[in-house]
Specification:
mainly alpha, 3 domains, Growth Hormone, Chain: A, about 475 residues, single chain
Length: about 475
């Protein structure tokens, strides 16, 4: 269906000399692949684990390594595009992602699967930022809103359709097809990119920050790998503690380097802006952690302890993500009426509350009740995430938008990794405390993880309270009443 849409669009736009809509559609399809892959794999974890003869929690590394590689390589996308040309890099990234998808499907062991996911995550790290560069280079400013609208649609659709699609494929076909469906789209994407995207000569303007890359990549890899080892080896904590300490030391050097270097790989200038630092690093991170853990925890709980098949688990996740879409149309009016601070405080509390309610689910809870609760939960996080994503850039000056955007992408992906890793650790800790093997997770283990993550979300309120009453007013248009 998606490939057919591309071909139809090609025919309709053949008379358009700029082809900017078609180029935006090509970029959108690449982003759709990357987003869809992240959304469907969690549904297939139990099936993949059975084929490898492992416990599902041991397959968590298949998700975390994909996200971790993206976090490490995301800052390099702009420099690589400048050095080798955005068109070439984008086409090569799509090709590498397609190849990695085939290798994932052909994997017969955990090691092979993880290596394929490393390649896939590296390709995705270049596809998304370089895809945006390609689109911006080919689009006139007058057409930019139209192009951005086309390119952002997959960011909304993929998380919504992904769980149900992944559940259907896993239930009625096999988990390998989750990766193989990328192949025709990838081949079409490479062919169309090479044919239709205008060639822009490489334009290297600054040297690559090797020291910054090593420090940032090393600190990220050590810290996230420590979390993965803790979830695998708990209660053996000595090695994870050493790795975490080393990662934090490198992180300190990375921050020091970024503040002193003329052209740092990751600029930290935007952190001086209160609304940015709170929405991106402070309360924003604390509240995103539990929300990002839901797509990992819920599918396994539904399948491993409730006895639902992957398709029904995917339908329940569809409610969660569908609810996210429902309230998008009133977001602007809500922020204008109540302001960022009030909206974020209320939706943070509600999202945490509904997550705690999810911990009360049991195998006897009616399917319709779970669907309705997840739908309402998705509505709450819709306003929450839109508010955070908008506030992040509300007070950032134009000259800092590039570096602020790169840092935001890194924080988002890092939060995704942490959300999954912490969830896996909590499941393992709960099973160990109950004297259960990791291969037999119970509903109590999932309840423990959900409740702890809900508490983490509530801690974000202390940071979000520090926002000024008129934070982001230049964007929302909200003007608080003057104090009497």
């Amino acid at each position: 269906m998606l490939a057919a849409g591309v071909l139809v669009s090609l025919a309709l736009l053949s008379a358009d000399r700029s082809h900017f809509r078609l180029i935006a559609l090509i970029v959108a399809c690449a982003m759709f692949m990357a987003q869809l892959d992240g959304a469907v794999v969690a549904l297939a974890l139990p099936a993949i684990a059975r084929s490898f003869g492992l416990a599902p929690v041991q397959l968590t590394i298949g998700i975390t390594v994909y996200l971790m590689v993206q976090v490490i390589l995301l800052p390099t996308g702009g420099w690589i595009a400048d050095r080798f040309g955005a068109k070439r890099v984008f086409a090569a990234a799509v090709a590498a992602f397609t190849l990695a998808s085939v290798l994932c499907a052909l994997s017969r062991s955990l090691t092979a699967f993880v290596l394929a996911r490393v390649l896939q995550g590296g390709a995705a790290a270049l596809m998304v930022p370089v895809g945006r560069i390609v689109m911006l280079q080919a689009t006139a400013k007058a057409d930019l809103i139209s192009a951005m609208t086309i390119s952002t649609v997959p960011m909304l659709i993929a998380p919504s359709l992904g769980p149900a699609l992944g559940g259907f494929i896993t239930t009625y076909w096999s988990w390998q097809w989750i990766f193989l469906i990328n192949v025709p789209f990838g081949i079409a994407g490479v062919a169309l990119a090479l044919r239709l995207i205008p060639h822009a000569p490489p334009a290297l303007h600054k040297p690559f920050d090797i020291a910054g890359f090593v420090l940032f990549g090393g600190s990220t890899a050590l810290t996230l790998y420590a979390l993965q080892r803790l979830s695998d080896d708990y209660p053996a904590w000595q090695l994870p503690a050493v790795l975490t300490t080393a990662g934090l030391i490198l992180a300190g050097f990375a921050v020091r380097h970024a503040r002193r270097h003329r052209h740092p790989l990751v600029s930290l200038a935007a952190l001086a802006i209160p609304s940015y630092s709170i929405a991106a690093i402070g309360g924003g991170t604390l509240v995103r952690l539990p929300v990002r853990s839901l797509p990992y925890l819920l599918p396994m709980m539904f399948q491993l302890t409730f006895g639902l098949n992957a398709l029904n688990a995917g339908i329940l996740l569809l409610a969660l993500n569908g609810g996210d879409l429902v309230l998008k149309v009133i977001t602007t009016r809500t922020l204008r009426r109540f302001g960022f601070r009030s909206v974020l405080l209320i939706t943070t509390a509600l999202s945490s509350m509904w997550m705690a309610v999810c911990a009360l689910f049991s195998p006897t809870t009616p399917f319709g009740v779970m669907f309705a609760i997840l739908l309402v939960s998705g509505m709450c996080r819709s306003l929450l995430f839109t508010g955070l994503s908008t506030l992040v850039f509300a007070d950032v000056p134009h000259e800092e938008l590039g570096s602020a955007t790169s840092l935001w992408y890194i924080v988002q992906q890092g939060t995704n990794v942490l959300g999954v890793s912490l969830s896996a650790i909590l499941l393992t800790v709960s099973a160990q405390l109950a004297g259960e093997p990791r291969t037999h997770l119970s509903v109590h283990d999932f309840r423990f993880a959900l409740l702890v993550m809900a508490v983490i979300g509530l801690l974000a309120l202390f940071s979000l309270r520090r926002l000024a009453a008129d934070a982001g007013a230049s964007v929302s248009g909200h003007r608080p009443a003057p104090a009497v």
